[in-house]
Fold:
Amino acid sequence: MQDQEIKEIVLKYVISEYVEDDDQEVTYDTPLISGGIVDSFSMVSLKRFLENKYKISIPDEKASPEAFDSVTKIVKLVKEFI
Amino acid sequence: MGYSDAIRSVYQAQIQEIREAGLLKQERFIHSPQAADIEVEFPSGASVKKAINMCANNYLGLSSHPDVVKAAHAGLDSRGYGMSSVRFICGTQDIHRELEAKMTEFLGTEDTILFPSCMDANCGVFEAVLTNQDVMISDRLVHASIIDGIRLCSAIHDTFKHSNMEHLEEKLQLHADKRLKVVITDGVFSMDGDTALLDRMADLCDKYDAMLFIDESHSSGFIGKTGRGTHEKYGIMGRVDIITTTFGKALGGASGGCVSGRREIVEMCRQKARPYLFSNTIAPVVVSGVLKVLEILSGSTERRDKLENNTAYWRKGLMEAGFVLKEGDTPIVPVMLFNAKLAQDVSRDLFDLGIYAVGFFFPVVPKGQARIRTQISAGHDIHHLDKALDAFIKVGRKYEILGKTKNEIIERYGS
Structure:
């Protein structure tokens, strides 16, 4: 699967799941956790979404706030396990 | 002494930062019992001033009810002041079990366990009944005490958008493989005054084999036809697995809380919930007062009916005056001002006119959603509400916000 395709799927999920303010712009490199868009609690649904979508298992120690801090970083993490 | 000047300066800088951000909370000293008419010293050192209280959780006006005060006195005389023990050593009296039985009956559940506060109930319950094989799925606007309880629990945690049932269903599907699932919500949301869509939530919980948890702190005693709570309003009594609630609001307003629900869940709390195991329970004097409150409420719906009428009168008056309100039908009626400074200015001007209503702003509510949260009580009479309305209109005129939309207010004052 191409990086770009995964990027688009993850970005679409992040926007529909976490962004409730229509004026907020989120790009592939927008800081998600350090930028306050995704709180550390809500990372769970993102992790489970990725695992279900790509039939992978991301170990808890790899699912750090740093690794989930942007769509680009998330895609890099996912690629390690596909 | 390890508290050096350097350490002191760390805290001084932090406090200064809070002050400069305009977020420093200051207490107002009340020199009278809690009631519709109170005597307030504010700011500290100012002369005491009479005011109408429009922001207490004293929904049923029972905080200083003579029968409740009398029952508390009798309890003090017959059962003493304190227990000097946690429940399971030698801190349980007959009246503690009596109150647990009465709450079970009142809420329509299987069993109840008392906690020192509802904050403690919420902090203790999840850890006591869930493990890391389980999931907690909470509304994104649940109370801070629930969030703290969730943080203390090893089960995974996910959220759904506020009152969005489609989103909740997606989350129940996402976590279908977990051993136990608990859907968590407030019955009445304390900042906005709206109610959870409990009938639909109960149906979803049935469909996906999940338990339903509700915090009824802003509901117990007055929501529903006989005041049993949000589960009565939505016709799902007996279908809620875990209810937490407080005695610190409508039910006498002193202190204490409980977990009420399925028998096994209550027993697990008795065995494992840390605030129950490691802290004294509610003092006998308070237990005696709450027992009287339940007796009053079980005998008549007069107070919750008066509260309902007062709420409708107040909401209609504010609407007709042209304020922007949060929609709802509970006694929590937020007057939206959007800007934090405007909320503080309006609160101060209201106090000058003898109306005590506090401004709420970030971080208590999201940025750009500052407000005066008014709370109606059965202790209010129409003359209280008329006087408060008159003051709100005077202040509303001063700031030229009457009849203005949200966008017009934000355009003028910022968000």
Summary: Chain A has a mean pLDDT of 87.
